[in-house]
Amino acid sequence: MEPRRQFHQDLETLQQDLLRMGALVEESIYKAVRALTDQDPKLAEEVLEGDDQIDRMEIEIETRSLRLIALQQPMAGDLRILGTVLKAVTDLERMADHSVDIAKVALRVNRQPWVKPLIDIPRMANIVQGMVRDGLNAYIRRDVQMAETLATRDDEVDGLYGQIFRELLVLMLSTPTSVEQATQLLMVAQFLERIGDHATNIGEWVIYMVDGVRRDLNV
């Protein structure tokens, strides 16, 4: 096969693998939050077990990306695509790590009665899952406008995190017996907020890939 044709075929395969990794990460976030809200230790264990596969995919995609850069010396748009892949896999892997963190909290608080109804944490989770999905869709479609919408939703996630922080702080001050669980729930909210930041990072890299400019959406 002609070298450039082979390069573009390898590049297409690489991007498809990135999307498969993204789907696994989105599923991991969903399962981790469900494990928490439904107090389902089996789902939490599935998240922990699935993290190894995501880690392996990150290493494999990074290795193949670097090999293409070294051997093919791509220019301009192709180089930006590979740079975006390298950055995106790192953000996806860190999202998966935070899913593991949430799953571990789910195991720690399993069977405990809730100190408060879980309302805003599932709302945060729904938003960040949508952000991950749309960040990847923006990548597929090379859609700058879709990437830019992540900034608004990241602000919404930050607002929910602030609300959860205040409510749990008041609860801990008024009900000392709630401190241990409330601290765990606050950690979950923080992990979700960080996942939102990583999803927004992917949006920034999509903009860079398409337009060749760096934009900070986390402002």
TrEMBL record:
Q: State where it is primarily located.
A: cytoplasm
Please give the Pfam families that the UniProt record associates with this protein. PhoU (PF01895)
Q: Would you tell me the Gene Ontology cellular component terms?
A: cytoplasm
Q: Which UniProt keywords apply?
A: Cytoplasm, Phosphate transport, Transport
Using the record's annotation, list all stretches that form the PhoU domain.
18-105, 121-206
Q: Does the keyword Transmembrane helix apply?
A: no
* Localization: Cytoplasm
Biological-process GO terms, alphabetical: intracellular phosphate ion homeostasis; negative regulation of phosphate metabolic process; phosphate ion transport
Q: Which family does it belong to?
A: Belongs to the PhoU family.
Q: What does this protein do?
A: Plays a role in the regulation of phosphate uptake.
Q: How does it assemble?
A: Homodimer.
Name this protein carries in UniProt: Phosphate-specific transport system accessory protein PhoU
Provenance organism: Ferroacidibacillus organovorans
